[in-house]
Design goal:
With about 180 residues, this protein is mostly helical. The protein contains 6 helices and 4 strands; from the N terminus they run H-E-E-H-H-H-H-E-E-H. The chain has 2 domains: about 100 residues, no CATH class; about 40 residues, no CATH class. Strand 1 and strand 2 form a beta hairpin. The longest helix has 29 residues. It is flat, with a radius of gyration of 25 Å. The protein starts with a helix and ends in a 5-residue tail after the last helix.
């Protein structure tokens, strides 16, 4: 296979992966938003399964980008040297700069992931964030409980679900009820 054919196929697969990333990101953000969890599905997949696919597409995109840069490394080095007013670097210099860039990116990604694992904090109740899952429970309870309903405007309730106004449980979790 010629170098041109290899570049073509790497770029074509990269395009498909990027379209897949955009599509799964759109589904996760707009179609199956936070709080939908295992309750809503699209084509039999819930939000978390789309998230897994999105992650693996991102890994593939990074790998394809690395191959793309590798295939164009000589061009990148020559254009960078020309823009800096220097002559084209030797093959040894190109190799050393490539290894330095690879090491820097690896340390940045690996160090960032390590830092993130050490910075994770548990919430007080251990249940996670303030998503719409709790509001879904309250909404289901409101169908059973009698009393007046209102639209909850808590920060975690982006859709303004109806919750029971006179429920003691709701008073603790919804500051807009008074």
């Amino acid at each position: 296979m010629t170098r041109t054919a290899i570049n073509y196929w790497i770029d074509a697969v990269s395009l498909l992966v990027m379209v897949g990333l955009a599509a799964t990101g759109g589904v996760i953000h707009f179609v199956l938003p936070a709080g939908s969890g295992h309750f809503a599905t699209l084509f039999g997949w819930n939000r978390h399964e789309f998230g897994d696919l999105h992650f693996y597409l991102a890994v593939a995109a990074v790998a394809l980008l690395a191959v793309h840069v590798l295939l164009h490394w000589t061009w990148i080095c020559c254009v960078t040297a020309k823009m800096a007013g220097r002559s084209a670097p030797s093959q040894t210099a190109q190799t050393l700069w490539g290894l330095a860039l690879l090491l820097a990116v690896t340390l940045f990604l690996g160090g960032g992931l390590y830092w993130a694992t050490t910075a994770v904090q548990q919430t007080e109740d251990g249940r996670g964030g303030h998503g719409r899952g709790r509001h879904r429970e309250l909404t289901q309870q409101s169908r059973v409980l009698s009393g007046k309903n209102h639209h909850c405007h808590c920060p975690g309730n982006r859709v303004g679900l109806l919750v029971p106004q006179h429920s003691g449980l709701t008073r603790r979790t919804c500051p807009t009820i008074g």
